[in-house]
């Protein structure tokens, strides 16, 4: 099936078979460097013109000074996995799950998503994880080609270092799949995200229904897998990511040494560094820092790691991901605008910055020539209320 896809260009999407014409007028347009009152026009799905002033031409939508932003770009979300497995070990039919996932993201203002799928499985023990990414990717790519989706979908492979089958699963993907991101994950207990073993026990036991003995066995198995496969899998995953032409991301870097390794691996952005030390080292190594919107909105990490707000105040934050709450992405931009007193800078963390990190050059900003992915937002009691979503100039929400 995948051989039917033309051209390996990541920016060339197959998620829309029509392009719309649209004019939003009398709006506060959030441009890359400033906010102006004006109008924006898309033609054939591309931003054709931006004009300053409050004039509302015939056929235009009068936004009554609502904000107009670029569509949101999401690099890391667990949402598709939540839809295909709504409860532990409950397998929901994938096509309706993907369509529901797509509709949910569109309803929150996300117009481009990199759907995270785990590669690297464990076939033994109560804490087992089975292969699913290749099959799910086939279904997602077919649905995209058929025009079932409202928004742009790309692949993000979460390479689980502490597993049995990582390299075999990665080998099943080719350049025709246009995998946008490969992130390097090491969930070995006692380090990175789960330095706190009690936090790990709470997370895994609730998610997988493990008793104390089963959890202890699960941890022992993970240690053994790390000892046997860890170094081989990390080197192999980097090699596979380069073969696929993907951006490489690190995950849960905790120390300066972790970041130094990420830099040697050619990592483009760091997902959820867990400490100030790691975030500062990312800055020193030219690696963009991505933090979770739930962390920012809740005022801290649920795992006890560094707070996104503190990194923002220290200018150590570049990109926000919705992680496990899609609606949090738009909220986080306005929270950052309060922290920085700079709306364009805050909006960039959920639009142009993630687009650049993923090497997408055709979206993420209200600029002539970019895709007509735009949002209309009204602020109500300091909260952003989404009033309209357009993908390539077509109304989708």
UniProtKB/TrEMBL annotation:
It comes from the Bacteria. The keyword NADP does not apply. This is Alpha-D-ribose 1-methylphosphonate 5-triphosphate diphosphatase. The keyword DNA-binding does not apply. It comes from Sulfitobacter noctilucicola. The lineage of its organism: Bacteria, Pseudomonadati, Pseudomonadota, Alphaproteobacteria, Rhodobacterales. Its EC number is 3.6.1.63. GO terms for molecular function: hydrolase activity, acting on carbon-nitrogen (but not peptide) bonds. One of its GO terms (biological process) is organic phosphonate catabolic process. Keywords: Hydrolase.
């Amino acid at each position: 099936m995948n051989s039917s896809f033309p051209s390996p260009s990541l920016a060339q999407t197959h998620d829309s078979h029509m392009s719309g014409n649209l004019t939003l007028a009398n709006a506060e347009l959030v441009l890359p460097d400033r906010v102006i009152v004006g109008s924006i026009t898309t033609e054939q799905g591309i931003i054709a013109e931006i004009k300053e002033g409050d004039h509302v031409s015939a056929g235009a939508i009068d936004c009554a000074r609502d904000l107009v932003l670029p569509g949101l770009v999401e690099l890391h979300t667990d949402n598709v996995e939540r839809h295909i497995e709504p409860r532990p070990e409950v397998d929901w039919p994938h096509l309706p799950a993907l369509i529901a996932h797509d509709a949910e993201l569109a309803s929150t203002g996300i117009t481009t998503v990199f759907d995270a799928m785990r590669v690297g499985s464990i076939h033994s023990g109560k804490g087992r994880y089975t292969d699913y990414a290749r099959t799910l990717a086939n279904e997602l790519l077919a649905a995209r080609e058929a025009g079932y989706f409202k928004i742009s979908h790309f692949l993000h492979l979460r390479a689980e270092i502490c597993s049995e089958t990582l390299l075999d699963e990665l080998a099943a993907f080719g350049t025709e799949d246009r995998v946008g991101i490969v992130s390097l994950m090491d969930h070995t207990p006692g380090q990175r995200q789960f330095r706190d073993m009690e936090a790990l026990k709470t997370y895994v036991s609730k998610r997988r229904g493990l008793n104390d003995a089963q959890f202890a066995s699960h941890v022992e198995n993970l240690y053994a897998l790390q000892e046997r496969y860890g170094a081989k899998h990390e080197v192999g995953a980097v090699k596979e990511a380069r073969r696929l032409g993907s951006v490489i991301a690190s995950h849960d870097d905790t120390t300066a040494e972790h970041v130094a390794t990420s830099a040697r691996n050619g990592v483009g952005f760091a997902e959820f560094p867990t400490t100030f030390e790691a975030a500062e080292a990312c800055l020193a190594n030219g690696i963009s820092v991505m933090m979770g919107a739930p962390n920012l909105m809740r005022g801290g990490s649920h795992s006890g790691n560094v707070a996104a707000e503190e990194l923002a105040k220290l200018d150590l934050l570049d990109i926000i991901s919705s992680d496990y709450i899609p609606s949090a992405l738009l909220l986080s931009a306005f929270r950052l605008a309060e922290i920085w007193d700079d709306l364009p800078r805050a909006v960039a963390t959920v639009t142009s910055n993630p687009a650049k990190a993923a090497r997408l050059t055709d979206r993420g900003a209200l600029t002539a020539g970019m895709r007509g992915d735009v949002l209309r937002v009204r602020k109500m009691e300091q909260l952003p209320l989404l009033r309209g979503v357009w993908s390539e100039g077509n109304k989708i929400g």
